């Protein structure tokens, strides 16, 4: 709660001497930039003649940047400090602060803002304006609020160089850093757009970023989604094929059977922007990354902040949300199991239900279908059970899982997570059947149309075929890299490898997306168990399901032969050639195999390497790591550990994704630890594991879920499409009618 008082004006930009040729080139580019922006804004004026309102901490450069933006747009520039407060008070801000004190200063500053009005201008707020709610509500009505987000360490350095001698709200025992951190909640509440500003970024560059951000804000039609199977000619002829984020969240699967992807790809962050997030918390990183991936027309920044706070604020047992732990040598574990259902799926599925509830139309009921190989089911059920009661009345969930293809604890968890709007159905088949069945249901327009007309209910997907599932996973891969930098393990820019146990290709695809967005990931190591179709494919370019049968293993989340999200990756490296993707997947469906061309395989192998792990080696790795460190890996993480040991070249750190807590796979873990007598009761198994004082401790949230499982009953269904569709209709009738 403070306002700067300066002894003298301080320039934040340093003059630099440059050769005349460079100056001429820079001048010509600057003139061209101004002409482009004036041309754009002449045909796309500020919406309703609104203001551009610059907000941020003291020392963020709001005044300097505001003047540059105003000059580029040829519009009035208003500095609240100089042009409003001092004019209103007829005294300097310094004198006012000394006269009335901090608390009264904030109140009178807010009152002055309430009397202020302008249009078509660039306005630079004070650092403390956002702390007066009524004043901000008033000024925001006619403006787009742009948050100049500067790292706290940079602000502290700038304020020191500016010789600040008094700040609003300063008191003994309260550090300037704490005050700046306190301010962030207000900036988060009010901003429409965020502009990341690194330490050495020039005001001219920040001004350009502000204009780019405003242009993006006013043009949501630039951020459309397409199907991986649509051709360029089809898209140019049929503009109705374009979808927005809200559409793809609710629809899940594209009508042509493809998967939705952003037409222009994911946003790229500069090195400076990534570095500005090194000191940030996990939730702050998530906010910044997701704001750039989700247009504010779909979810405003303030609503997104609320959703992120709900998802990650209290539901994770570790305050760091996704901590990175050093294991041995150059290997680090990214612990993704601290959520309520003890797997990496919680990162998306604590968030996505709230996104889904916000995006769907209020006039329709929705049934969310999900197929799971183990972890997704309980995460979906738990996530949707946390919605507000009004949302539960219009959103229900049906979870299909292989009845005999998950661990006993996973099954107990899915049964125990059933609530009034969420059910589990065991299917007498494998995961691939469950996933294929859901895809066929979505593309059966006669059936989906019948549900809409007869029951007013639409279907949606919560599997990683839904685009919204992938974005939160991008966040934790980026955050893991930033944590290594923050811990001093590597300097920013040094590469890392990541090793991920991979089944449906969603988690590793998110790492590839993080790489595309600018995170210095060198290689993604794809780790398979004995269902090693992906290993063979990455090594040879041949995806061949002929003569393959699914092998049940102790790592069921990767017991998958048809990896859905691979389609998105192939679409990306094929330069959005939807016709090629359609050809490949039609061949896979009809003939059971396809083969990549040499060029495409070469691109794939620049990003990916792959290996697989036997059951014997998986259990041996669990025993070995526990014997030497006291740390227990779950079965999926053990698969990744074995493959990382074989494939990493030790020239850089490797981050192994620990995708689930070992508590979920207690029988396999007890077997790996060579414990002879194993009680079949899941709760007893967890208590036995706890007696070994393992690292990390037993997941007590999971234990509590198993203790209060409630209804032990669940539906079991034959592997028959008509029966699955009948179960869906029955559920709709019971919940919505």
From TrEMBL:
Superkingdom, according to UniProt?
Eukaryota
Q: Which family does it belong to?
A: Belongs to the threonine synthase family.
Q: Which gene encodes it?
A: Thnsl1
Q: What is this protein called?
A: THNS1 protein
The record's HAMAP family line, in alphabetical order, gives: Shikimate_kinase
From the broadest rank down, the organism's phylogenetic lineage runs: Eukaryota, Metazoa, Chordata, Craniata, Vertebrata
List the Gene Ontology MF annotations in alphabetical order.
pyridoxal phosphate binding
> In what residue span(s) does the Threonine synthase N-terminal domain sit?
226-312
Q: Which keywords has UniProt assigned to this entry? A: Amino-acid biosynthesis, Pyridoxal phosphate
Q: Does the keyword RNA-binding apply?
A: no
Q: Which PANTHER family match?
A: THREONINE SYNTHASE-LIKE 1
Extract the NCBIfam families matched here. Answer: thrC (TIGR00260)
Q: What is any Pfam family matched here? A: SKI
Biological source species? Ramphastos sulfuratus
């Amino acid at each position: 709660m403070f306002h700067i008082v300066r002894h003298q004006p301080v320039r934040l930009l340093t003059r630099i001497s440059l050769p005349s040729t460079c100056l001429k080139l820079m001048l010509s580019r600057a003139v061209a930039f101004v002409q482009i922006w004036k041309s754009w804004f002449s045909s796309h004026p500020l919406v309703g003649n609104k203001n551009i309102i610059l907000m941020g901490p003291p020392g963020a450069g709001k005044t300097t940047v505001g003047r540059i933006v105003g000059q580029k747009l040829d519009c009035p520039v208003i500095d609240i400090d100089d042009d409003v407060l001092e004019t209103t008070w007829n005294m300097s801000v310094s004198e006012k602060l000394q006269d009335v004190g901090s608390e009264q200063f904030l109140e009178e500053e807010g009152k002055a803002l309430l009397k202020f009005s302008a249009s078509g201008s660039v306005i630079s707020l004070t650092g403390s304006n956002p702390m007066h709610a009524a004043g901000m509500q008033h000024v925001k009505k006619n403006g787009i609020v742009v948050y100049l987000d500067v790292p706290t360490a940079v602000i502290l350095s700038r304020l020191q160089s500016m010789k600040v001698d008094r700040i609003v709200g300063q008191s003994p025992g309260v550090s300037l850093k704490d005050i700046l951190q306190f301010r962030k909640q207000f900036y988060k509440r009010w901003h429409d757009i965020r502009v990341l500003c690194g330490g050495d970024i020039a005001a001219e560059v920040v001004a350009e970023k502000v204009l780019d951000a405003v242009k993006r804000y006013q043009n949501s039609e630039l951020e459309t989604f397409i199907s991986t199977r649509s051709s360029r000619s089809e898209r140019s002829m049929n503009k109705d094929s374009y979808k927005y984020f809200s559409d793809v969240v609710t629809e899940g699967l594209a009508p042509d059977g493809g998967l939705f992807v952003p037409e222009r790809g994911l946003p790229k962050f500069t090195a400076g922007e990534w570095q500005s997030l090194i000191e940030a918390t996990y939730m702050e990183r998530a906010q910044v990354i997701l704001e750039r991936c989700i247009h504010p027309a779909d979810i405003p920044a303030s609503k997104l902040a609320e959703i992120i706070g709900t998802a990650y604020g209290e539901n994770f047992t570790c305050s760091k949300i996704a901590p990175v732990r050093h294991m041995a040598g150059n290997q680090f574990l990214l612990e993704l199991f601290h959520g309520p259902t003890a797997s990496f799926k919680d990162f998306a599925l604590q968030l996505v239900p709230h996104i889904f509830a916000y995006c769907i139309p209020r006039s329709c009921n929705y049934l969310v279908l999900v197929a799971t190989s183990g972890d997704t089911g309980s995460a979906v059920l738990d996530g949707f059970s946390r919605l507000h009661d009004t949302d539960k009345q219009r959103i229900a969930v049906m979870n299909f899982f292989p009845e005999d293809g998950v661990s006993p604890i996973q099954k107990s968890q899915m049964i125990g997570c059933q609530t009034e709007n969420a059910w589990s159905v065991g299917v007498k088949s494998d995961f691939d059947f469950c996933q294929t069945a859901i895809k066929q249901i979505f593309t059966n327009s006669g059936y989906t149309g019948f549900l809409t007309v007869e029951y007013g209910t639409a279907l949606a997907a919560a599997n990683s075929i839904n685009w919204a599932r992938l974005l939160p996973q991008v966040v934790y891969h980026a955050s893991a890299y930033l944590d290594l930098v923050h811990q001093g393990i590597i300097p920013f820019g040094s590469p890392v490898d990541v090793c991920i146990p991979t089944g449906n290709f969603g988690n590793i695809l998110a790492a590839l997306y993080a790489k595309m967005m600018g995170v210095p990931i060198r290689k993604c190591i794809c780790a398979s168990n004995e269902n090693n179709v992906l290993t063979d494919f990455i090594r040879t370019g041949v995806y061949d399901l002929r003569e393959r049968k699914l092998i049940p293993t102790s790592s069921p989340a990767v017991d998958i032969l048809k990896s859905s999200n691979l389609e998105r990756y192939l679409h990306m490296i094929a330069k959005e050639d939807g016709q090629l993707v359609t050809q490949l997947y039609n061949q896979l469906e009809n003939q059971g195999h396809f083969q990549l061309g040499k060029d495409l395989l070469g691109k794939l192998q620049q990003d990916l390497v792959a290996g697989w792990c036997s059951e014997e080696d998986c259990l041996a790795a669990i025993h070995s790591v526990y014997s030497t460190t006291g740390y227990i890996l779950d079965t999926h993480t053990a698969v990744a550990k074995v493959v990382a040991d074989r494939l990493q070249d030790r020239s850089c750190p490797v981050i192994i994704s620990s995708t689930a807590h070992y508590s979920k796979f207690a029988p396999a873990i007890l077997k790996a630890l060579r414990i002879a007598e194993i009680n079949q009761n899941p709760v007893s198994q967890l208590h036995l594991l706890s007696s070994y004082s393992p690292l990390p401790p037993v997941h007590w949230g999971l234990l509590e879920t198993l203790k209060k499982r409630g209804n032990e009953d669940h539906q079991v269904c034959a592997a028959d499409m008509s029966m699955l569709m009948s179960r869906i209709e029955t559920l709709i009738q019971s919940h919505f009618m």
